[in-house]
Amino acid sequence: MNGSQRCFAVIMAGGSGTRFWPASRAAHPKQFLALGGASESLLQAAVRRLQPLVAPEDVLVVTSERHAEETRTQLPQLPAANVLAEPTGRNTAPCVGWAAAHVRRRDPNAVMAVLPADPHITDEAAYVETLRRAIGAATSGDMVTVGVQPTRPETGYGYVQRGPAVTEGVYRVARFVEKPNRETAEGFLAAGDFFWNSGMFFFKATVLLEEMHRQLPDLAAFFERCDAAAARGAEQALVQAEYGTLTSISIDHGVMEKARSILMVPGDFGWYDIGSWTSAWELAARDATGNAVVGEAVVLDSRNCYVRGRTDKLIALIGVDDLVVVDTEDALLVMPRERAQDVRDVVAELKARRRDRYL
Amino acid sequence: MNGSQRCFAVIMAGGSGTRFWPASRAAHPKQFLALGGASESLLQAAVRRLQPLVAPEDVLVVTSERHAEETRTQLPQLPAANVLAEPTGRNTAPCVGWAAAHVRRRDPNAVMAVLPADPHITDEAAYVETLRRAIGAATSGDMVTVGVQPTRPETGYGYVQRGPAVTEGVYRVARFVEKPNRETAEGFLAAGDFFWNSGMFFFKATVLLEEMHRQLPDLAAFFERCDAAAARGAEQALVQAEYGTLTSISIDHGVMEKARSILMVPGDFGWYDIGSWTSAWELAARDATGNAVVGEAVVLDSRNCYVRGRTDKLIALIGVDDLVVVDTEDALLVMPRERAQDVRDVVAELKARRRDRYL
């Protein structure tokens, strides 16, 4: 994108399946679902949005071994080797570090954008411009994050406080803040210099790995052994054998929050962490009575429902309001929209009953 | 049953599929469904209940052509020829008359019990005793009906008023009454001599056919031509050609209400005309929180729901009360229990959309 500077994207696609059961399962987590109202999955949208910035051969996806095949199927435009398969999840620091080692091997001077697979973006042009600015800032060797303009006193996200400006649209990070309570979140919103932590990070691969070397030396050493193993075609065997022993820590806690200096690019591009069926309804196209339907339905005298079925099946609702109905081949969920958080209780009950086929 | 008197049973199984959609369909109407809380269908229960009274080879079922195969499959204990297939529905008078012709051919002196396939019976011993009495009364050449002891001022049924006693437990019918309005129904209940018209009739086949000869001579003539055709193995061809031209009228209106004399045997055996998913819930086994589940379900914080799924599928409910959830291979219905009558609106909508595959 930058003329002289090659940019890779690393998409973290390690989601689990609990909150979107029964559409999401252990074998088919959230990122594989079309939750943003379009027919593409969240993962496919995440890759498609990068088109103006990153060539497909420079997009890496880190996912778990069990999801690697589906990831490659959903992203046929990516070389198969660009899907990195973790034998086991060790949080995001090992995931990002391993991807950085791959990027450094391909281009030691490259910048990389680390992006979660899940968020839904409504203003894609603004998103691309924000990323372009963040990538530009990372080119000079800084570590950069994107702070999302908050629209409500959200207690479910971490925050990042904006510090002094560095250049146009780029600021120092004053501090990272954990998920606040309601009162604190309201203070953040009123203060105006707090932004949602988007989980997006931008840096040269070498800069990240040097920072890891300082803060998480064991991890950094492992990635150097990965380089050596890769040189003799034995990287996956090494990963297979040792990945599970790596320090399990997030990139936020393990690296970013203790890094010497982090820059921040504020962004306002309609960023939604689709966290439950409630937010899926909020983002979906709804008819005049507030119903959102995926699939074929007969909806009589019902309002503000989210109906998600299959193309070869009819769903009929009569006289119900604010209901979520999600129907899949082998499982069906019915609940009020406001109970969306309790889907995990169903999953827990199924685990307790050892009904693995439904997990 | 009666020693000297052979008794046939004629089960009228001509139901359509509207009120129990999506479990019932045009091709799979109500009588084929297990709605009584057991695993047997209503039709299978209707035949099984007769065991103490009628031999399987003397049970005839009249159904439509399109349901003949399923009827034979559900009732393997019946000779295939005992399932009479109507090319088209012409209400109950032709159906009963045709069955009477068959009975008369097999035994000119036989009594027949005409029974609808649909009702659910909770006290089967009392039911059998009531039928035994009604059959006994018919042996002497009378036409007999069973009046069901009413338990509420029901406006959905016709009534029969009890006249003077003839012998123990057998009365003359004073009159048949159409479905009353609420006030009238309350008066009936208070009066004590009004009973629900069960749609069950008992008579010698010859007596019915003679009565038809008097009241519906065209029909009676057709059945005589059936006898003649049967003698040369051509009955089904005649039926195929002419059944659709027969007078379409109910046995109640066409024969019973204008017959010279009808007897009535009162009965009290837990008679339920399962008319909707609401009554299916009422009759089903329910857990301590009022939920009735057919299939596998995880039901959390929900009360008084009727859940009907499949054995190979899981249904999860969270935080819903008084809901009906019926899931089939290709269609799903969700509605409050109190909206059960509106299922027909879904069926109407599907017809309007020409979505025949769901009808």
Q: What's the quick description here?
A:
By secondary structure, chain A is of the alpha/beta class. The first copy, chain A, has 2 domains: 7-272, Spore Coat Polysaccharide Biosynthesis Protein SpsA, Chain A (Alpha-Beta Complex); 277-358, no CATH class. Helices cover 31% and strands 26% of the residues of chain A.
Top keywords for this entry?
homodimer, about 350 residues, alpha/beta, Spore Coat Polysaccharide Biosynthesis Protein SpsA, Chain A, 5-stranded mixed barrel, 4-stranded mixed β-sheet, 17 strands
Number of strands of chain A: 17
Specify the CATH architecture of the largest domain in chain A: Alpha-Beta Complex
Shape of chain A: globular
The first-to-last residue Cα distance of chain A is: 42 Å
- Helix content range of chain A: 25-40%
* Rg over alpha carbons of chain A: 21 Å
CATH homology-level superfamily of the largest domain in chain A: Spore Coat Polysaccharide Biosynthesis Protein SpsA, Chain A
Q: Could you name the CATH topology of the largest domain in chain A?
A: Spore Coat Polysaccharide Biosynthesis Protein SpsA, Chain A
